[in-house]
């Protein structure tokens, strides 16, 4: 039987190339985690003392961390940051060490550990693959803020009333620990959402996006395929929408190879040879 010739076949990456791509993606994710740990630490020292709780850039960095890194990597970032501070590295707003748990403001740090992954899920989905939408990113950032205020205010209320012996009712606690910061933090939520809207497709493209798509490889050059060739540099989100404008990548929703006649052949077929598909 005459072999069926084909011009393009998808999902033909070897096991070694897939492993290499995963390593590259993992490395980039680790680099982003390290960058955001540094940004959160630096943001803690850019502060403006107002009342009991100082205003700092830390909240803005944590919101950006949630929107860009997603739930898993965002939670890992906050966890590593907290561990570093509790073992004595002075990266918190007022220093570091395990005794920092007795500070009235420690509730905000605990709040980040919950707020960042939950806000990331709201903004990007559980698997961090939802195409970024501005309204959803803004909703996720406001979710981070709401959870952060809840943890921070209640912790401050408990510490001041039952540990430090300073009488403070809940209404004043909300005013002191949340309301006074709401305009500034709300502004940072908007700014972080706009930044994430532009940055997320790039991060997705070079991390999760590379692992959820299949690259189209050319085997036989024909006039038809040459006319359709472009820069093979497009990736797609889980909903099928493109990250960039090119269309030479497809979602890896199945291990099927496409022949030029439109038929499918299983990726584990033993009939693939260098000359084509042998019948």
Biggest sheet features: 3 strands, antiparallel
Number of domains: 2
CATH topology of the largest domain: Arp2/3 complex 21 kDa subunit ARPC3
Give the amount of beta strand, in percent: 5-15%
The count of strands amounts to 9
Number of helices: 8
Give the mean pLDDT.
75
Structural class call reads: mainly alpha
Low-confidence stretches: 1-11, 210-236, 244-279
- N-to-C SSE series? EHEEHHHHHHEHEEEEE
CATH architecture of the largest domain: Orthogonal Bundle
State the helicity in percent bands. Answer: 40-55%
Radius of gyration (Å): 25 Å
Task: For the largest sheet, list the strands in their spatial order.
Answer: 1-4-5
Give the CA-based shape. globular
Q: How many angstroms does the end-to-end distance come to?
A: 6 Å
CATH class of the largest domain: Mainly Alpha
Explain what you see.
- The chain is mainly α.
- It has two domains: 8-15 and 208-277, no CATH class; 30-200, Arp2/3 complex 21 kDa subunit ARPC3.
- It is built from eight helices and nine strands.
- It has helices at 15-45, 58-86, 106-124, 134-162, 170-177, 182-206, 208-211, 223-228, and strands spanning 8-10, 47-48, 55-56, 213-218, 249-251, 256-258, 264-266, 272-273, 276-277.
- The strands form four sheets. A three-stranded antiparallel sheet has the order 1-4-5. It has a two-stranded antiparallel ribbon with strand order 2-3.
- A hairpin with a 2-residue loop joins strand 8 (272-273) and strand 9 (276-277).
- The longest helix has 31 residues, at 15-45.
- It is globular, with a radius of gyration of 25 Å.
- The chain starts with 7 loop residues before the first strand and ends with a strand.
- Mean pLDDT is 75; it is low at 1-11, 210-236 and 244-279.
């Amino acid at each position: 039987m005459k072999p069926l010739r084909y011009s393009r076949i998808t999902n033909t990456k070897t096991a070694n190339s897939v492993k290499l791509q995963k390593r590259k993606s993992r490395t980039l994710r680790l680099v982003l985690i390290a960058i955001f740990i540094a940004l959160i630490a630096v943001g803690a020292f850019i502060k403006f003392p107002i009342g009991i709780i100082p205003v700092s850039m830390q909240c803005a960095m944590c919101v950006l961390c949630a929107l860009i890194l997603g739930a898993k990597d965002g939670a890992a970032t906050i966890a590593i940051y907290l561990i570093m501070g509790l073992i004595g590295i002075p990266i918190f707003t007022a220093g570091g060490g395990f005794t920092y748990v007795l500070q009235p403001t420690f509730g905000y740090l605990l709040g980040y550990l919950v707020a960042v992954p939950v806000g990331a899920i709201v903004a990007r989905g559980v698997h961090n693959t939802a195409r970024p939408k501005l309204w959803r990113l803004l909703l996720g950032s406001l979710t981070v803020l709401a959870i952060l205020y809840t943890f921070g205010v209640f912790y401050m209320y408990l510490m001041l009333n039952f540990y430090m012996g300073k009488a403070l009712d809940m209404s004043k606690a909300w005013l002191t620990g949340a309301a006074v910061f709401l305009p500034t933090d709300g502004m940072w939520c908007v700014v972080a959402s706009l930044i994430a809207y532009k940055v997320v497709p790039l991060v997705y493209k070079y991390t999760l996006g590379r692992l959820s798509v299949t690259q189209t490889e050319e085997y036989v050059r024909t006039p038809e395929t040459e006319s359709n060739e472009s820069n093979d540099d497009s990736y797609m989100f889980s909903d099928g929408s493109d990250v960039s404008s090119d269309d030479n990548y497809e979602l890896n929703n199945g291990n099927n190879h496409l022949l030029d006649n439109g038929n499918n052949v299983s990726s584990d077929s033993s009939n693939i040879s260098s000359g084509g598909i042998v019948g």
